[in-house]
Write a structure and sequence with these properties.
The complex is a heterotrimer of chains A (about 290), B (about 350) and C (about 290). By secondary structure, chain A is mainly alpha-helical. Helix content of chain A is about 75%, strand content about 0%. Chain A has one domain. Chain A is globular. Chain B has three domains: about 160 residues, P-loop containing nucleotide triphosphate hydrolases (Rossmann fold, 3-Layer(aba) Sandwich), CATH 3.40.50; about 80 residues, no CATH class; about 70 residues, ACT domain (Alpha-Beta Plaits), CATH 3.30.70. Helix content of chain B is about 35%, strand content about 30%. Chain B has eleven helices and 14 strands. In chain B, helix 3 crosses helix 4, helix 4 packs across helix 5 and helix 8 packs across helix 10. By secondary structure, chain C is mainly α. Chain C has one domain. The longest helix of chain C is centred in the C-terminal third of the chain and has 33 residues. The chains are: A mainly alpha (about 290), B alpha/beta (about 350), C mainly alpha (about 290). Chains in contact: A-B, A-C, B-C. At the A-B interface, helix 1, helix 2, helix 6 and helix 13 of A face strand 6, helix 3, helix 4 and helix 6 of B.
Chain lengths: ~290, ~350, ~290
């Protein structure tokens, strides 16, 4: 039975609240928490998110072996496999996450809290990135070990810079997609599926993107992974890798993409939230 | 957070909300569904306001407009003096929402973690937030389950957790959308008791409750509005509504089995008769013009057939009010309605 | 009420009739679910983009190494990529069907407790999924023929051989699907990822995109255990002729088909047994319709 006499004391005094940036950081930390501890609570995630991309990676390694390709192509494939982990995270755990939240009834609650939806997406990004970084590292280490591949970074600082800027751009794209998926209902699941193989192709996950042709590759460069993979491969394989653009140009372009996607994400989020409230589709199942 | 506003806590004027629906091969251009059809109401601070109606009446739609989830098609709504359309973010600082039948929550988090996460969305410092969470969990009887995963909770426990989530930020206005739906009797009673204590604990706290349980509205609400097909058709204190419905007296008679009771409507003084087979007999629920008319009914029954096994005079209920205003019982209105 | 009830009688029917009815209705349901999420145009694009994206990845990998020209490996890629959607949808789709009935639609308890053979229901759903793979398969083959110049000519295709291999392949896919469903019945939580894991492992060992001979020697016997491996090999022989790159160069076309029959039949028996055991176990544990609430 409810302890009715305890109720007034429990709920009496007003708790102070943070506002502004402090609240944004609190909300982001709160939302990233399930992502981070999920790995420990549900060990199968670690298995699936590591083994599945690794299996796909191994399959493409054997394709190159069947083709008699030089060893550096195996390095391409291993990098592609690690990149797959990030792309899967962006599509399934960012872009489609609101779809799952809508299904589960959490999205309604997120729309009503005072911090707004942006810090929640920020938390999802942060939690997702940390979890995926671990998986990608495991894929690279295991893949390199299994196939005896040596990676030699010519400029570690530049390598980390490319990686960092690319991650910001990538997750900005993920947030943009989250807004779009908000309205696509059940189709969101299929749309996330749709952006798998075509993106693997267009971004050159498993081969130098220059093979698509210069202008075709430039056309697909709005996907941050295209330029990121090309720049990272230049830093790993040097002149042997048929580059699309010089590394610093690609860093600059990734920086511009990062800014663009962050601005776009913010705009899209507001616009989509407005449309969702107008159409009444926040809480519909499909 | 500011003190409760001087004006109404909730103010709605001529609110309309329509939904477009997709055409089909049979009907390419269907008319839009009118969920709210010019709703107006005021709820002063400190009031426990109930919105009563069958499924599909528009209760949930109205709540969703007020908690800023849904934009109105036309009309206006203000919560805590703030416009729900143009000042949505400010509205959210002052409100919380708890829905019934919810399965929300991340299954792999514990109860405490789930609630802590939401406390962060309101900017509550972790230490005080956890202390408040523990206090509230004790009150609702979930303290011992605080380290249990959400996925392992029963429906009643989950709803108690959701209620704690709604109370955690200590909102000025709490919106409860059918909070006891799907709960067993004990859990529903507990939830109602706590909500009642909560609103009394501090002046200025306001609750808007939607329900289709008559007894819940009677038990909790200072004032009840009856909504039907998107319109408010009455809005008064439960006692006033019942007095309005007591344009007459209500009696329940148990008789031997009767083959049809429609003829009773022709007896002088009978305003309405509902006959239900019950336990190999018949239960007659009668609305009469006054107490004296019962004598005519008894005489008519004695002249026709079976014995009267029992007779009881009833105080009119909100169900009776609903029937009088809408012309059908709540269950019948439910069957004719769609989703809210 | 009583009068209305008396006029409705159940169609009981014999075992095969009941099986057929359950299969037919399940097929219809599966098709509705598979195709109702968007308009036909978008559905068509979805059927195009994924398989063509997959084959083009392999094509560019090929061109980067071979620097142009056609070789027999192109045909190998095209046929493997064209046929893989049958595996994705027919096998993994069966398991996802059960999982989605259990977790998303929450209808599993009602379907299971209805007087229908549950296996027939699952097979019907599986076949509906497999049917949705026909369009992408044909498009990929046509793309391979007319854009990539793969030698897929009506004159050289052994139609009867390919048709027999295809029918056996579908049977093998359904059997594998039942086996995966058996596992899915006993797992909650992350069950929805498990079919993907199985599919990825099979993609690696069944010679989908590279010959089995490329794998390390110790994996060759593993590859031969699965009906998919023989199915893909037989389909390549039937569609591309004798000059195709072979996963089993030591086996003639007749031998390949024979092995496919034997392995498929074995898996049908195995999957049926596994399903029976898993179903009984799930009922014992009371987890047949348990939702994971994740």
């Amino acid at each position: 039975m409810i302890g009715a006499s305890a109720a007034p004391a429990a709920a009496g005094a007003r708790l102070p609240r943070d506002h502004g940036l402090r609240r944004v950081l609190r909300a982001a930390a709160g939302r990233s928490y399930p992502r981070i501890i999920g790995q420990n609570r549900e060990r199968s995630w670690l298995f699936y998110d590591t083994v599945l991309p690794l299996l796909g990676t191994i399959a493409f390694v054997f394709v190159y072996k069947a083709l008699g390709a030089p060893d550096r192509f195996i390095g391409y494939v291993i990098m592609g496999g690690a990149t797959t982990a990030f792309w899967l995270n962006v599509m399934w755990n960012m872009a489609a996450q609101f779809y799952w939240d809508k299904q589960g009834g959490n999205l309604e609650l997120y729309m009503v809290v005072p911090c707004g939806i942006t810090p929640i997406l920020l938390g999802m990004s942060l939690g997702g990135f940390l979890a995926t970084l671990l998986r990608a590292a495991v894929i690279v280490l295991l893949g390199a070990w299994m196939f005896d591949v040596r990676f030699a970074v010519s400029d570690l600082g530049l390598f980390l810079l490319v990686f960092g800027v690319a991650i910001v751009a990538l997750y900005g794209l993920g947030v943009t997609f989250a807004s779009l998926f908000l309205l696509w209902g059940r189709e969101a699941w299929h749309m996330a599926e749709l952006f798998m193989e075509p993106v693997f192709l267009a971004s050159g996950f498993y081969f130098p993107v220059r093979a698509l042709g210069f202008w075709a590759a430039m056309g697909t460069s709005f996907i941050p992974l295209t330029l990121a993979l090309d720049a990272l491969r230049q830093l790993l394989f040097g002149a042997a890798h048929p580059a699309l653009l010089p590394v610093w140009w690609e860093v600059a372009a990734l920086g511009a993409l990062a800014v663009m996607f962050i601005i776009l994400a913010r705009f899209m989020l507001r616009r989509m939230e407005y449309l969702a409230r107008r159409e009444g589709r926040l809480s519909l199942r499909f | 957070m500011s003190l409760a506003p001087a004006g109404p806590a909730i103010e709605v004027r001529d609110l309309v909300r329509t939904y477009r629906i997709k055409g089909t091969a049979q009907n390419r251009h269907p008319a839009p569904v009118v969920a709210l059809d010019g709703v107006s109401l005021d709820v002063p601070p400190g009031e426990f306001f109930g919105l009563l109606g069958p499924n599909g009446a528009g209760k949930t739609t109205l709540i969703k407009v007020l908690v800023t989830l849904l934009l109105p098609t036309s009309g206006s709504a203000r919560v805590a003096g703030l416009d729900v359309v143009s000042q949505a973010q400010l509205v959210r600082e002052r409100i919380a929402m708890v829905s019934g039948g919810e399965h929300s929550g991340y299954g792999l988090l514990t109860v405490r973690e789930q609630l802590w996460m939401f406390s962060q969305f309101y900017g509550l410092p972790t230490g005080p937030a956890l202390a408040r969470i523990d206090d509230l969990l004790r009150v609702v009887g979930l303290y011992d389950e605080r380290h249990r995963r959400v996925s392992a909770l029963s429906t009643g426990m989950r709803q108690k957790m959701n209620l704690v989530r709604g109370l955690l930020p200590d909102p000025d206005i709490l919106f409860l959308d059918e909070p006891t739906v799907g709960l067993d009797v004990a859990a529903a009673r507990d939830i109602r008791a706590y909500i009642r204590d909560w609103i009394r604990a501090r002046p200025g706290r306001t609750v808007l409750l939607t329900t289709h349980y008559m007894h819940e509205a009677e038990e909790l609400c200072d004032r009840v509005a009856i909504i039907h097909q998107g319109r408010i058709i009455a809005s008064e204190a439960p006692g006033e509504l019942k007095r309005r419905a007591a344009g007459g007296s209500y009696f329940v008679l148990r008789t031997e089995a009767m083959n049809g009771a429609g003829w009773l409507a022709d007896v002088p003084g009978v305003l309405r008769v509902d006959a239900t087979p019950r336990d190999s007999g018949t239960e007659l629920r009668l609305q009469l013009t006054d107490d004296g008319a019962i004598a005519e009914v008894v005489r008519a029954l004695a002249g026709r057939s079976g014995r009267i096994l029992s007779m009881q005079k009833l105080e009119p209920s909100l169900e009776d009010v609903f029937v009088q205003l809408v012309g059908q019982r709540l269950e019948e209105a439910d069957q004719g309605g769609g989703g809210s | 009420m009583a009068t209305a009830a008396a006029s409705v009688s159940r169609r009981s029917g014999s075992g095969p009739a009941r099986w057929w009815r359950a299969l037919r209705v399940a097929y219809w349901l599966g098709w509705q679910i598979e195709t109702n999420w968007t308009d036909p145009l978008l559905f068509f694009i979805y059927s195009l983009a994924k398989p063509l994206g997959g084959v083009l990845i392999l094509v560019f990998m090929y061109f980067v190494v071979a620097r142009g020209g056609q070789g027999p490996l192109l045909g190998f890629f095209v046929v493997g990529t064209a046929l893989w959607p049958f595996v994705l949808r027919g096998m993994m789709g069966t398991a996802w069907g059960l999982i989605s009935d259990r977790e998303h639609w929450r209808t599993l308890r009602y379907i299971y407790s209805a007087p229908i053979p549950f296996r027939a229901y699952l097979i019907g759903r599986s076949l509906a999924q497999a049917t949705s793979a026909i369009a992408p398969a044909l498009i990929t083959l046509l793309f391979g023929r007319y854009v990539l110049g793969v030698p897929l000519h009506l004159e050289t295709i052994d139609g009867w051989y390919a048709a027999a291999a295809m029918l056996l392949g579908i049977a093998g896919i359904v059997a594998l699907g039942l086996a995966v469903v058996s596992a899915a019945m006993l797992i909650s939580g992350e069950a929805w990822r498990m079919p993907e894991g199985v599919g990825a492992a099979l993609y690696l060992v069944s010679g989908a995109i590279f010959p089995v001979t490329t794998l390390p020697g110790w994996l060759h016997p593993v590859a031969q255990v699965f009906p998919l491996t023989w199915w893909l090999e037989a389909m390549r022989r039937g569609l591309l002729g004798a000059d195709t790159v072979k996963s089993f160069p030591w086996a003639g076309a007749g031998q390949v088909l024979l092995y496919q029959v034997l392995v498929t039949l074995s898996w049908i028996v195995l999957a049926s047994l596994a399903f029976g055991v898993a179903e009984r176990r799930a009922r014992q544990l009371g987890i047949l319709d348990q939702e994971s609430a994740y």
